[in-house]
């Protein structure tokens, strides 16, 4: 059979947030880029497919990073004794300004793309900068990598350093539309996403224009929401006639629509905002490493899960220190425990199983049917060789997964498939 | 000159908790196992010493792990959806019981020792089990490794599974004394330390006997104190005539004395306990990873530092998931930030510089003069090759240190010296 193959090994994926499936020595079958199912024995109709026997290795769905900043990759792990707004001014904006220079952008984005390729991530939603040329360069590299991504040219027309600020809303919108047209014409697996950086860096005119572009091009949206208290207060002073932070995006048609919106962080949603975020079908990108590093706080992910909100993980590099979503997922568990024990409430912690769900199927839903080995889902798979983590030790599959979860990194990623195509 | 050499490179160490010294392209001189100083140019008297030029590498003092459990190494990263007391019963005690079997102990302790050798750690205080033979085996391996350690044969004569519990206090004390004699006779850099596991697993008779052994042999002590609320309540019910947890150790002469005591965790010291712990000169082993993984809480390390308490870091493997003290130190920063932001108090966060201090000089003080490149200190050094962490990037020394701090692991450890002797 053409375009059909099977991976044999120890296959693990999330059926629900709480139900992890362990399928030892099973076959995951890929047919035309999609998962045809996971089987203990190959069914008759797949009897002749090519089987790659991966022995005792672990095979998980591809991981999905709902929020990261490509031009901050070089700044990973820098400046974490600062808090968010100070850190943005001192480090982030300065670094992003350099992407106006093509040679710099080319070299830095190449390093970023290669690094991302080596992680367990198969799909990602990425912030670039307002530099159209550099953004297209990044998209070209991501397209070549085989990863599936959304990339946003980042809009800022105020409260940004002069090297980064777009000169006015009209210019920004014209440039953005030009970039959208060019991206749609050039790339297949690298898609444009509307990306107002965050409310404080955009004028109402710019936000309104982006809302119009959303309708015209039917594009999804990504931005930041309720990351820190000082940021929320700043938004209130900039948009005095909006009731709260979420209503800024709502007013301009950027929260709900026919296409989904990702809002990173959501650490401090009010009850009212939370209900509207849920009703709008917004995907929350939970970024525990970043929220820790720049002292933002801990989002109430346990209750987001209990409420059935749409939710995935974001490394938020360079607020987060690493592109490794295993690390991010284990941090999601850690910060939920500290939130529980420090706040002393009844809200439980997030389990490993749930964090793995968020890292795969939770975020995968943004891409349609992704992040699980269910029939009809895109065939994204990561093959982990966890030999380093269990020298001469007999462990159950669950225990091996636990060691991978807390200790695994790119050293364990042995192969990676995106939509049935091997990319690593 | 005999027994004298210099390492040339980028030398970094803590002068105080807040003052990190950066000495780019300096010489750290070792004379008879001790640091003779760090110099921009080699002084005349060292003009003829052998110089190892380490180019652009980073040279830091050896790291000191004040608290870890060697027989739990295999359990690292397992069972972290449980809380402390449940986790001890379900996983830890079961694993430790296996060290009664010599072949198992030999293989597992070998893996542990090799792994520890590859980390930045040069000195450590280690819990073994109550098995004398296995404990001596571990000490033999650590002696061979060249690391400087204290190792404790762990006493438990109640509230332990039958395979681990010593049959009564008299037997436990006799065995412990025999083990002390044998250790003192056999090893030079691997020293015995009295190790009542924690108050709940020891009868008053056993604790009293250990207090007597402390005086007789002038040995230091290590144990656990105020790790979780349920544990504190348990201690109260077991020792109804002791005012608090710390007073159990005080009563039996195990908190203060001519030799120092290490108490791991101290997450929930009362104000009164805290003052007594300080007055007794106890070293607190702060174990942020463990306190997170088994949901214990966050120790008030910022205020411990401000109060000038004696303080270092412990990986507490397997409550902690990794032997890497860089990771532990970055977790010390992270949990302090979350404590600050979640509790909303005025207590600040712990900075990177302070966490590095704790990981080196803070814990090093337990070993005398260790953990810094100051004249007269033992010459413990770790050479880090951080090339992986800064592909084609120009960074300041501080920025390189930041990347190492948040992202470094055993891959970066290129060489290691303990008391002037190269061990890796």
Overview of the structural elements:
Two copies of one chain form a homodimer. By secondary structure, the first copy, chain A, is of the alpha/beta class. Chain A is built from 13 helices and 17 strands. In chain A, the strands form four sheets. Chain A has a seven-stranded mixed sheet with strand order 3-2-1-4-15-16-17. Chain A has a four-stranded parallel sheet with strand order 5-6-7-9. A four-stranded parallel sheet of chain A has the order 11-12-13-14. In chain A, helix 3 runs parallel beside helix 4, helix 4 runs parallel beside helix 5 and helix 11 crosses helix 13. The two termini of chain A are 23 Å apart. The mean pLDDT of chain A is 97.
């Amino acid at each position: 059979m053409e375009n059909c193959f099977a991976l044999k090994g120890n296959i693990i994926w999330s059926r629900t947030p709480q139900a992890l499936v362990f399928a030892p020595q099973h076959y995951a079958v890929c047919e035309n880029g999609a998962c045809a199912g996971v089987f203990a024995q190959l069914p008759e109709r797949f009897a002749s497919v090519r089987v790659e026997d991966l022995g005792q290795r672990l095979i998980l769905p591809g991981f999905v990073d709902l929020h990261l900043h490509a031009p901050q990759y070089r700044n990973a792990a820098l400046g974490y004794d600062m808090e968010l707004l100070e850190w943005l001014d001192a480090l982030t904006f300065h670094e992003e300004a350099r992407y106006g220079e093509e040679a710099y952008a080319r070299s830095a984005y190449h390093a970023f793309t290669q690094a991302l390729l080596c992680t367990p991530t198969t799909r990602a939603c990425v912030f670039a900068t307002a530099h159209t040329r550099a953004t297209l360069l990044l998209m070209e590299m991501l397209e070549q990598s085989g990863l599936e991504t959304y990339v946003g040219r980042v809009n800022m027309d105020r409260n940004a350093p002069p090297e980064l600020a777009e000169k006015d809303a009209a210019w920004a919108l014209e440039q953005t539309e030009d970039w959208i047209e060019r991206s749609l014409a050039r790339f297949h697996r690298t898609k444009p996403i509307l990306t107002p950086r965050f409310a404080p860096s955009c004028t109402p005119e710019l936000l309104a224009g982006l809302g119009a572009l959303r309708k015209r091009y039917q594009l999804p949206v990504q931005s930041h929401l309720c990351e820190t208290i000082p940021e929320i207060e700043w938004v209130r002073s900039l948009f005095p006639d909006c009731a709260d932070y979420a209503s800024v995006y709502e007013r301009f048609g950027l929260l709900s629509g026919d296409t989904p919106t990702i809002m990173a962080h959501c650490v401090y949603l009010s009850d009212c905002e939370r209900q509207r975020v849920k009703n709008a079908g917004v995907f929350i990108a939970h970024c525990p490493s970043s929220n820790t590093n720049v002292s933002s706080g801990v989002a109430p992910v346990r209750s987001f899960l209990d409420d059935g909100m749409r939710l995935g993980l974001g490394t938020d590099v360079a607020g987060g220190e690493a592109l490794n979503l295993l690390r991010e997922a284990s941090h999601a568990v850690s910060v939920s425990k500290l939130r529980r024990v420090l706040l002393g409430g009844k809200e439980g912690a997030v389990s490993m199983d749930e964090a793995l769900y968020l890292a795969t199927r939770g975020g995968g839903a943004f891409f349609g049917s992704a992040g699980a080995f269910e029939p009809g889902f895109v065939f994204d798979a990561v093959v982990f060789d966890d030999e380093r983590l269990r020298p001469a030790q007999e462990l159950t599959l669950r225990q091996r997964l636990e060691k991978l979860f807390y200790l695994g990194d790119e050293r364990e990623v042995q192969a990676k498939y995106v939509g049935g195509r091997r990319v690593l």
